[in-house]
């Protein structure tokens, strides 16, 4: 015997602006002023009635309709190379919080370190008419023509180039490279290698420039370089390469915390002691560095300050009009031989 299927109950119609106005005993205009925060003021008593009616009816404003009326979707976009990277995850989260404080939501897109994907995502955000885009590009000068033609403002966030024609927020990568290497030199190391992220667009990364400059200033020859992806797997691969090298340096500067975690794992698996056998300093200042074994000495980027500056630059209100470069900070921990600060 075949059981008869039950028809689902018809969906309950959503409450409308008129429903709220009727229950609250006010005009639809008053409801609109309360929901949208203006443009006209509403008496405290009327506002209380409207908000109680909204609560009772479960009214939800139509975001699409409101966007059409205001000309703003109150939506921003951010494109990052790798959202699984703790640095970019924390940066996107900080941007999200700063944007929310200004009444904007944030949509996050991941390019996977692919320039083709990055361009497609920027084009997609432009077609969706977001109010602005933060782009953590894998190249120094990304193609922003789709945003420009749509008159959508953009900020190059975590910017790695020297100068840009676009508004940008980043840190002094060369200063960070210098800071890391000078610290290792201060520990007595004269042979310092480099683990560098993959070169994209033929532009030398500022961290490598700083590494070279610090060694040259100290009268030291550059140590071995290994170029690998900005991943834990890449760091592990670099560790295997350094361990099998005919001449192993006494210290290594690693261009990201994520790589450094993989590098430390490779050293641990081979019985190499850090920092007594090989000292390590990394770059980013993410939580990965704080919870690795040993804890990583790292050149930290001011994520919250960068995020706030980027949001202010995109939305106005006193932010940087063109570009802003933040200083980095060396956080001393055990991987270089220092007593841990925190």
From TrEMBL:
PROSITE patterns: HTH_LACI_2 (PS50932). Gene3D superfamilies: 3.40.50.2300, lambda repressor-like DNA-binding domains. Residues 15-70 form the HTH lacI-type domain. InterPro entries: HTH_LacI (IPR000843), LacI/GalR-like_sensor (IPR046335), Lambda_DNA-bd_dom_sf (IPR010982), Peripla_BP_I (IPR028082). The keyword DNA-binding applies. GO terms for molecular function: DNA-binding transcription factor activity; transcription cis-regulatory region binding. Keywords: DNA-binding, Transcription, Transcription regulation. It comes from the Bacteria. This is LacI family transcriptional regulator. The lineage of its organism: Bacteria, Bacillati, Actinomycetota, Actinomycetes, Micrococcales.
């Amino acid at each position: 015997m075949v059981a008869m299927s039950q028809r689902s109950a018809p969906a309950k119609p959503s409450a409308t602006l008129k429903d709220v106005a009727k229950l609250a005993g006010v005009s639809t205009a008053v409801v609109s002023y309360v929901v949208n925060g203006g443009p006209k003021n509403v008496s405290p008593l009327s506002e209380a009635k409207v908000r109680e009616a909204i609560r009772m009816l479960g009214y939800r404003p139509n975001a699409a309709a409101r966007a059409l009326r205001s000309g703003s979707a109150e939506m921003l976009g951010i494109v990052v190379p790798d959202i699984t990277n703790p640095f970019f995850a924390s940066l996107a989260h900080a941007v999200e919080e700063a944007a929310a404080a200004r009444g904007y939501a944030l949509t996050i897109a991941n390019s996977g370190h692919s320039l083709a994907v990055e361009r497609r995502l920027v084009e997609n955000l432009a077609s969706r008419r977001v109010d602005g885009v933060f782009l953590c590009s894998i190249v120094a000068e990304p193609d922003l023509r789709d945003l420009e033609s749509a008159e959508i403002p953009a900020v190059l966030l975590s910017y790695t180039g020297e100068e840009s024609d676009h508004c940008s927020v980043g840190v002094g990568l060369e200063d960070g490279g210098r800071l890391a290497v000078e610290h290792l030199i201060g520990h007595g190391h004269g042979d310092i290698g480099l683990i560098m992220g993959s070169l994209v667009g033929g532009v030398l990364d500022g961290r490598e420039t700083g590494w070279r400059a610090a060694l040259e200033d100290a009268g030291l020859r550059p140590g071995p370089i290994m170029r690998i992806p900005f991943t834990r797997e890449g760091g592990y691969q670099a560790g295997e390469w350094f361990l099998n090298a005919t001449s192993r340096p006494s210290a290594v500067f690693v261009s990201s915390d994520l790589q450094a975690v993989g590098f430390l794992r490779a050293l641990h698996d081979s019985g190499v002691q850090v920092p007594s056998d090989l000292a390590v300093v990394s770059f980013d200042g993410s939580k990965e560095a704080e919870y690795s074994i040993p804890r990583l000495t790292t050149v930290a980027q001011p994520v919250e300050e960068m995020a706030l500056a980027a949001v202010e630059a995109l939305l106005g209100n006193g932010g940087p009009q063109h570009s802003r470069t933040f200083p980095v900070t060396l956080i001393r921990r055990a991987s270089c031989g220092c007593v841990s600060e925190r």
